[in-house]
Amino acid sequence: MIVAIDGPASSGKSTTARAVAEEVGLLYLDTGAMYRAVTLAFLRAGVGEEETEAGASVVERVLDGVHVGVHHHVGVHHEEDGAMRVTLNGDDVTGELRAPAVTRRASDVSALPAVREKLVEEQRRIAAACEAEGGGVVLDGRDIGTVVFPEADVKIFLVADAEVRARRRRDELLEKHGEAPPLDEGLADIRRRDAQDRAREMSPLRQADDAVALDTTDRSIEEQVEFVAQRVREHRAAA
After folding, report:
1. How far apart are the C-alpha atoms of 151 and 157, rounded to whole Å?
2. Sheet containing 212-215: which strands, arranged edge to edge?
C-alpha cells in the first residue's frame, strides 16, 4: 500500500505522515528530508544558487559524491525525535536538516532535474521493497501523488493559511534550534517557497485530480491523523 501526502511548506505533511504511519502500521518515508540532505551536500561543497543554475556539470559533480541513506528498524521506526534517520555519505545528518540555511536552499535544489531523478529512483526502490514484504509506506512531499507515485492507493493534499504555516515553522525552529527569524520574514519565505514550488518547470506543486484535500489551518494534529488514517482503513476494507 502506498499513501501519498502532498502539500506546501509547513502544512503539516511530515508530522501527519509520521503519525499516520504509526497508526496504521506502515513505514514512514520523509522524502523532504532526503532532498534536504542533498541540499546540505551542496552547502558543504560551497555550491551557491548561481552555480547550480549555471549548468548541469556542477550539479552532477556534487551528486557524484553524494549518497543519501534512510534508516529504519523493522516495521515503523521512531527515534527520539519521532523521525527516520538520514545519513549523508555515512554520517547521520538528521539533526541538521531543518537548519535555516538548508531550508532557504531546499526548494531550489529539489527542483534540479538530476537531483529529482536520483532521489525519486531511491524512493521508488524503498517503497517497492516494503510492498514486496507485504507492507506499505506513507510518503510526504510536493509531488508524491502526481509524479513519484501517481498510482498511490490513498492520496491526500494538505493546505493551510500561509500565516499559520509561518507560525508553525517559527515554533519548530525555536524548539529545535533556540532561534528563528522574525515572523514577517518567515511569512515572506513561505510565500516565496510556495511561488517557487508551484511555478517550477519540473514536478510543480499541485493537487492530484484524485487526491482528497485537507485544510489543516484550524485542525489539531490528532484530527489530521484520524482523517487520513480513516481513508487508509476504508481502502483496506474495500480491497
Report:
1. 15
2. 27-30, 137-141, 2-6, 154-159, 212-215
CA proximity to 36, closest of 81, 95, 113, 90: 95
Q: How far is CA 69 from CA 37, 105, 173, in A?
A: 9, 20, 24
Using CA atoms in the order 26, 98, 57, 48, what is the torsion angle rounded to 10 degrees? 170
Q: Using alpha carbons, list the distances in angstroms from residue 208 to 28, 143, 147, 197, 212.
A: 21, 9, 9, 15, 8
Q: How far apart are CA 100 and CA 236, in angstroms?
A: 39
Contacts of 239 (CB under 8 A, 6+ apart): none
Using alpha carbons, select from 42, 54, 181, 11 the residue that is nearest to residue 109.
42
Class of domain 2-234: alpha beta
pLDDT tens digits, one per residue of 135-169: 999 999 999 999 999 999 999 999 999 999 999 99
Query: What is the residue extent of each domain of the chain?
Result: 2-234
3-state secondary structure at position 222 = helix
SS3 130: helix
CB contact at 8 A, 123 and 29? yes
Q: What is the pTM of this model?
A: 0.86
